[in-house]
Amino acid sequence: MQPFTYWDATSVEEAGKLLSLKNAMALGGGVDLLGEMKERIRTPDHVVNLRSIKGLDEIRKTDKGWRIGATALIADIAEHAGLKKDLPGLAEAALSVATPQIRNQGTLGGNLAQRPRCWYYRSADFDCAKKGGKGCPAEEGENRYLAVLGGGPCHIVHPSDCAPMLVALGARLFLRGPDGARDLPIEDFYESPSKNLACEYTLKPGEIIEAVEVPIALDRSTYVKLRERDSFDFALAACALAGRIEGDHFTEARLVLGGVAPVPWRVAAAESNLIKNTLADAVEPAANAAAEGAKPMSQNGYKVPLIRAAVARAIRALAGGK
Ligand SMILES: Cc1cc2nc3c(=O)[nH]c(=O)nc-3n(C[C@H](O)[C@H](O)[C@H](O)COP(=O)(O)OP(=O)(O)OC[C@H]3O[C@@H](n4cnc5c(N)ncnc54)[C@H](O)[C@@H]3O)c2cc1C
Ligand code: SF4
């Protein structure tokens, strides 16, 4: 690992100043960043610990919903009684992240800002387009875990389980940096490779995720994740679904796929299928709409039926009164 200077930030303002130093990076639990540093994929000169900021891990109810601080542990989100009651899909998504050890170390901010898992990106031996090199070796190579929707010129899949669920729940992200604070819908934070090849989101210099605010407007939510090993694994395909059901109809629905596209992939056509059909009649058209437009690569065609299965399971879970 390349030597670096380590800083314990004591406030969000101080973190912003430290992160404005040349080649500085934020540290949450370090689950992702330290792996990249060991592989020399990222070589910061300054590492700024955010977990030393008092109160940044707070989870509290406000008049707008739930506000979750950036350094809240994923395990605490998964086990929080209030979140389980008001936002069950978010607790399910957090519980599906990795292993108990990783959930006890990883933070929400780090989970949302984690970098992709493409083998070529993670290996120091390859210098692909995402890392400033030329081309995408995955196109002719190992692409079984990569995108079937929205890919090109890079075909990564968005790795976080929390992000698709937060998009489905209509969460807002609160960012703070040396130029002040701003907030935006979390779905606008993420950018596809055709817009931003080098990174999956844009933070201004010195800016960090400070908190996420999640409204409780949609009273039903669930997260269905399909993976190779149920003990721990990234999603091969996942469906985050949040909505409101009256009688035998969805009156509101937000459906977002994970593990199949470079960003959390919201599917408006599936949402309108859910609203215009009865619950029983909605499953098949919504599942088909979710997979529409999929362009599998040479090894990942299996993801298309997985998308349909994840969506169908999510609809049935909510329709069953979960
Ligand atoms: C074996 C394994 C299995 C995994 N499985 C899953 C899985 O199934 N689902 C899933 O979602 N994830 C999975 N992960 C990823 C893991 O959940 C994330 O790596 C973890 O959540 C990162 O959190 P962290 O706090 O340790 O982040 P860090 O490693 O500290 O940071 C990650 C990135 O985010 C940036 N960052 C951290 N905090 C902030 C902030 N507040 N504002 C701005 N930028 C910030 C850092 O600079 C860095 O680039 C897995 C990881 C491993 C190693
Ligand atoms: S998918 Fe993206 S990260 Fe992976 S090899 Fe291609 S360009 Fe690199």
Written account of the structure:
- It is a single chain.
- Helix content is 30%, strand content 21%.
- By secondary structure, the chain is α+β, with helices and mostly antiparallel strands.
- Among the domains are: 48 residues, Uridine Diphospho-n-acetylenolpyruvylglucosamine Reductase, domain 2 (2-Layer Sandwich); 100 residues, Enolase-like, domain 1, CATH 3.30.390.
- It has a five-stranded antiparallel beta sheet.
- A hairpin with a 6-residue loop joins strand 11 and strand 12.
- Helix 11 runs antiparallel to helix 12 and helix 12 runs antiparallel to helix 13.
Essential attributes:
globular; four-stranded antiparallel sheet; five-stranded antiparallel sheet; binds flavin-adenine dinucleotide; Enolase-like, domain 1; 13 helices; alpha+beta; Uridine Diphospho-n-acetylenolpyruvylglucosamine Reductase, domain 2; 322 residues; binds iron/sulfur cluster; 12 strands
Order of SSEs: EHEHEEEHHHHHHHEEHEEEEEHHH
Which structural class do you get from the secondary structure elements?
alpha+beta
Computed over alpha carbons, the radius of gyration is 19 Å
Shape: globular
Reported CATH architecture of the domain at 220-319? 2-Layer Sandwich
CATH superfamily of the domain at 220-319: CO dehydrogenase flavoprotein, C-terminal domain
Helices, by number, come to 13
The largest sheet has its strands arranged as 4-5-8-6-7
Q: Residue ranges: pLDDT <50 for 5 or more in a row? A: none
Topology-level CATH name of the domain at 220-319: Enolase-like, domain 1
